[in-house]
Amino acid sequence: MKKSAIVFFFIICIISTFCACEQLRDVGSKISGNRIDTNIDHKTAAFDTLPALENNTFGLNEDVIMNEDNCIIKYNVRNVKIYNSLKEAGIDPSSSDSFTYTDEHIDGAGNMWKSPVAQGELRPGFKFILADIDVTNIKQGLDESYHIGVIRLYSYENIENEYLTEPFTDESGAAYYVDPMGYDCAPNYFHFEQTETATRSSKNSEFYHYSLAENETLNIQLGFIVNSEIADKYDLYFRIGPAVNSTRYVKLFG
Known about the structure:
By secondary structure, the protein is an alpha+beta fold. The chain has 2 domains: 2-38; 44-251, Sandwich (Immunoglobulin-like), CATH 2.60.40.1240. The chain is built from 4 helices and 19 strands. The chain has helices at 2-37, 42-49, 86-89, 228-233, and strands at 57-58, 64-68, 71-83, 105-106, 112-113, 117-118, 121-122, 126-139, 145-147, 151-155, 168-169, 175-176, 184-185, 189-191, 198-200, 209-212, 217-227, 236-240, 248-251. A 5-stranded mixed β-sheet has the order 1-19-18-10-13, with no helix packed on it.
């Protein structure tokens, strides 16, 4: 009788353990299912592939040192301002060696795309962000040419690019599109005073390319045309670095 009671007890324990495991498995499946079934749109997917800002964020006047392809470059964002017009910023868009923007064209869907600049000034709905940045070549890489496009203006909250599809209307009432900043924007303006140790490429196809001698520091100006609502509403950062796993951020305001 005692032996039967012991056997019965072990059977009860095994059944209870099995049931508990199944319950945990169900809970795990539900949790996993929620992760999978949640609307994983572009925003969620992109967030999952980006490093956490709090672990990689710097402020103004802080050194950001990047090591890429055997070269070491130090960036220091000294100052950033938002302007309502190019004139206010002291920028002349006719300076083709320093300023670039989208040409007018019609895409495959028949949509008209226009430049955010018209007659030497920003179109309504846009602002201009201008930054002073010191660049120091700490260690020369194998390639003596560098690319300032590794610095991009970035809006973490607006990663969905929702503004890329918002049309504007010209004076005649016709709809047109522009290339405003959605969440990741390359510079529209790149300027510095050239010297014997700091030069930029003379090729139109190499707008972002420049050369800087080792142990030399160069002060540059970078400008970005952005949608006014993005400039006013969202936290803005510079994202520095061509690779996600080595990206650094600089918080521009606040």
